Amino acid sequence: MSSQSIEQFKQYLANQDDDFLQDGRRVEGIIRDIFSEERSIIFPLTIAWKAGVVTELRKTANLEVTIAQCGDRLCQEYSLRESSASSAVHVWAYALRVTDAVPNINFNSTPPLIIQSSITAETKKCPFCAEEVKKDARKCRYCHSDISDDVVFNEKQNNELIRQQEALNREKQKLERERQELSKKAAQEVEQKKLEQKRRELEENKKQLSSSAISRAFPTANEIGRDGHFIAYNDGIVIDTKTNLMWAAKDNGASINWNNAKKYCENYRGGGYADWRVPTLNELTSLYDESKEHRIRSLSSVYLTYSIELTDIFLWAVESRASEAARFSFLGGKIGWGPQSGSRGHERALPVRSAK
Predict the structure, then answer these.
(1) Would you kindly state where each structural domain of the chain is located, as residue ranges?
(2) N or C terminus of the chain: which is more exposed, having fewer CB within 10 Å?
(3) Is 251 helix (H, G, I), strand (E, B) or coil?
(4) How far apart are CA 100 and CA 89, in angstroms?
């Protein structure tokens, strides 16, 4: 018996579900088909299935003991020779993947002595159990299979049709899975394109808001000048299109402590808005520009956009700690701290708000 047939049998079983092993007609058919050139194994394998060997092998906890017990039972109850019984059980165990050990096959096609034929006329072998029977016999005296020429031919045809149908069903299932994957991929690509288009539209809208949308918020104000990304209007407002912040064009013009700076900014009504506030340190830092110098007196300068006018070097920030508050120097671009309720004469307040 060739190992190729056993491997084919193992592979076939691996592709079947549990229902297949419950269908005796299909099991016998595939055994006859795969081992058609090795008739001596057909009867032992079929008898082993009928005897429940498959069920016992699949649920065993001690494979070696189960194989021995099944072999003994096939010899005692079904008159199989020990070698044939043992080989049949080992083939089933290997084909069911219960063991990885390749079976040592020894099927003896000669019938047991108790049923050995004494026929002297012309004989033939049963295609199912490989035992010797009369040439004109229509039923095997050993395995009791119908062995008339028409039955054998039709059985093989039916088995082949079953195999072809099962292969076709597997191919259909594979094609359906591929179709679903392609549909899913196509849908994802369409959705991705929509998202990319939406992202481009949002980016375009953002650019428009940075340039023209802000100016439309001031129907009564006219642009009077630009300095890079800063736009100055005739109502004393400066827009930073980079940060979308709206600044007062001038500071409060005199020395002021942090507490009063907060009140000044909150009460500021430039451009008709009422939500002005003290800027943060990060917002003040965004104004600092070393390349642009304003001379505020003979020995001092500040560095920021030309669109905003400062009267001294420090601007108060909203950050505070204990009794101190932060201030930003537009002379050196550094952060400092001073008393909230006092002023050294150089601190100023510059209102800011978010441009929406």
Answers:
(1) 3-172, 224-354
(2) C
(3) coil
(4) 14
Spatial CB neighbours of 24, under 8 Å, sequence gap ≥ 6 = 49, 50
Question: Element (H or E) spanning 174, and its range?
Answer: helix 149-208
pLDDT for residue 285 is more than 80: yes
Q: Looking at per-residue confidence, does 87 or 163 come out higher?
A: 87
Task: Identify whether the C-beta of residue 351 lies closer than 8 Å to the C-beta of residue 280.
Answer: no
> Does domain 224-354 sit in CATH 1.10.10?
no
Q: What is the pLDDT of residues 7-57, one digit of tens each?
A: 888 899 999 888 888 888 888 888 888 888 777 788 899 999 999 999 999
Residue with tokens 């006018």: 309
Strands in the chain per DSSP E: 123-125, 132-134, 223-227, 230-233, 237-240, 245-248, 288-297, 300-304, 314-321, 324-329, 335-339, 347-348, 352-354
> Contacts from 225-229 at CB under 8 Å and sequence distance 24+?
225/307, 226/307, 227/292, 227/305, 227/306, 227/307, 228/305
